[in-house]
Design a protein that fits this description.
15% strand; Alkaline Phosphatase, subunit A; alpha/beta; 514 residues; globular; four-stranded antiparallel beta sheet
Length: 514
């Protein structure tokens, strides 16, 4: 490359690994398919944490959750730590930086004002002319809501940020909000799922794509840019607008081979977190937790309808990706832009009779897609080494010719992308400290993922689960206490104990109901 490239990170929210370009599920993603054919795809990438805030903080900071402190949802990333992430590092080295969309570096659902622009109590303190800086990004256009919920009153201006002000200005007399919650016929009779009457032009994916294209088009100067465009779909509720909600017929989507609960074969916390009572002081937060995260067992017909809407949301995200790629072409910068598409975590979507997300580290939730394309990136290449999105921060600094901070736990993916001699990875890390308020029981979870094995350790109780992914890709047989796999378990435990980097002495407690 003759000059430092632009860097464009596009993320979805809660997208399964098998719905990415060229993977196995029958989800229509022509633009992601194109991106994968033109670039390099990582087939064994995992998230550092299976919920939003910790995984996003790791992407930004190049640190694992127990090092940056955001060990669960509801814990705010310290601004001083966020500013030292890849955005701040590149901004300090001449890059024009922007964040557009759902950040979720801080909690919306705080019980009292936290002072951040994402807090439902504090957002009104940031005027309409505020566009950053935030967490190292010079320019921001934020969505605070992330995902509307029918049982919660939305944040209306002056609360919220750029998206909320725009959304509630559509139509008259709360028209956008009313259309979003209106279900077009026939009804789906499926939890968290409906065909929304909201026009596509008023949808969050459309707004964020429009704002990203506008920002790219109106940039001035010759400096390279680094932008993160963060789309909030296909996170539940599965509220896709027409025609996207009808793009995949329920009778034609595939269902998991194993979609019934088998909790007696799993470690104790699988059952406990489904049945435990959240210890939240806010009754609305408890209601949201039960409503939003504990979907009861679905019939096959219901799961088909949920899956079809979920796939529709992904296809709308894919359409947004295509529009942004076309905008890069139109501005003449496509040939000098590294484009990365990934997500924060997956979705269980019926695997083992479970839905959405939780402390069950199945591949549907832990494993995520990662596509890299652009100058110097080999086309149609698949990397099978276990990596993590914590590695994106160092990768961006590598391409941006910027020195990586010594304390980061992020390692550049560029040697793997370019197939350099000796480049390989043995292990990727996931970690989660769950407060009792979240699921009724406290948990200390550490997960190790290699090419062929995965092991989750619950440190407080000594329980765990181990899967041989090469011989048991559906994760049916927990081998944690199998004497024949004791040597494998010991090796994986040694890897877990050898986790790089320091731990925070004190991890903050959750600040709200996020």
């Amino acid at each position: 490359m003759s000059q430092r490239p632009n860097i464009l990170l596009i993320t979805s929210d809660q997208q399964r690994w098998d719905t990415f370009g060229l993977e196995s599920r029958r989800c229509k993603t022509p633009h992601l398919d194109r991106l994968a054919r033109n670039g390099t795809r990582f087939s064994s990438c995992i998230t550092p944490n299976v919920v939003c805030q910790p995984s996003r903080a790791s992407m930004l900071t190049g640190l694992l959750p127990l090092s940056h402190g955001v060990a669960d949802n509801g814990i705010n990333l310290e601004p001083a730590v966020g500013k030292q992430g890849f955005s701040g590092q590149l901004a300090g080295n001449g890059y024009d930086t922007a964040f557009i969309g759902k950040a979720h570096f801080a909690s919306k659902g705080c019980f009292e004002p936290s002072g951040t622009p994402e807090c439902k109590h504090s957002s009104a303190d940031y005027g309409e002319d505020w566009n950053g800086p935030y967490m190292g990004f010079d320019h921001v256009e934020l969505m605070v809501h992330g995902h509307f919920d029918r049982i919660k009153e939305p944040l209306r201006p002056p609360l919220g940020q750029h998206f909320e002000r725009w959304f509630f200005s559509r139509g008259t007399d709360d028209e956008a909000w009313q259309l979003w919650s209106e279900e077009l016929q026939p009804p789906t009779d499926t939890p968290q799922t409906w065909h929304s009457a909201l026009p596509v032009q008023w949808h969050s994916s459309t707004w964020m794509t429009d704002r990203a294209i506008d920002w790219i088009a109106r940039r001035k100067g010759d400096e390279p840019f680094c932008a993160w465009v963060s789309l909030p779909d296909p996170h539940h509720p599965f509220d896709c607008p027409e025609p996207w909600s009808r793009l995949h017929h329920p009778d034609e989507v595939d269902l998991p081979a194993h979609r019934t609960r088998d909790l007696d074969r799993r470690p104790w916390w699988h059952k406990a977190t489904l049945e435990g009572e959240p210890a939240m002081p806010d009754p609305e937060a408890v209601a949201w937790r039960k409503h939003g995260s504990r979907v009861p067992p679905l019939s096959d017909a219901q799961l088909r309808r949920m899956t079809a809407n979920y796939f529709g949301m992904i296809s709308l995200v894919d359409h947004s990706v295509g529009r942004i790629l076309d905008a890069l072409d139109a501005q003449g910068v496509a040939d000098n832009t590294i484009v990365v598409f990934t997500t924060d975590h997956g979705d269980l979507l019926g695997d083992h009779g479970l839905y959405l997300k939780g402390p069950t580290m199945y591949e549907a939730l832990l494993r995520i897609g990662l596509i890299v394309a652009g100058p110097g990136v080999p086309a149609d290449r698949v990397v099978q080494d276990p990596v993590s999105t914590v590695d994106l921060a160092a990768t961006f600094l590598d391409y941006g010719n910027t020195e990586c901070p010594a304390h980061w736990q992020s390692e550049s993916l560029r040697p793997l992308i370019e197939a350099r001699a000796g480049a390989s990875r043995d292990v990727a890390y996931n970690e989660w400290r769950l407060h009792e308020a979240r699921c009724g029981v406290p948990l200390e979870l550490r997960t190790i993922r290699t090419k062929i094995h995965k092991c989750t350790f619950e440190l407080d109780s000594g329980a765990g689960e181990l899967y041989d992914l090469a011989n048991d890709p559906m994760e049916m047989n927990n081998l944690y206490d199998d004497s024949g796999y004791r040597a494998v378990r010991n090796e994986l435990e040694d890897m877990m104990r050898a986790r790089p980097g320091p731990l925070l002495n004190k991890i903050p407690d959750p600040v709200g109901s996020a």
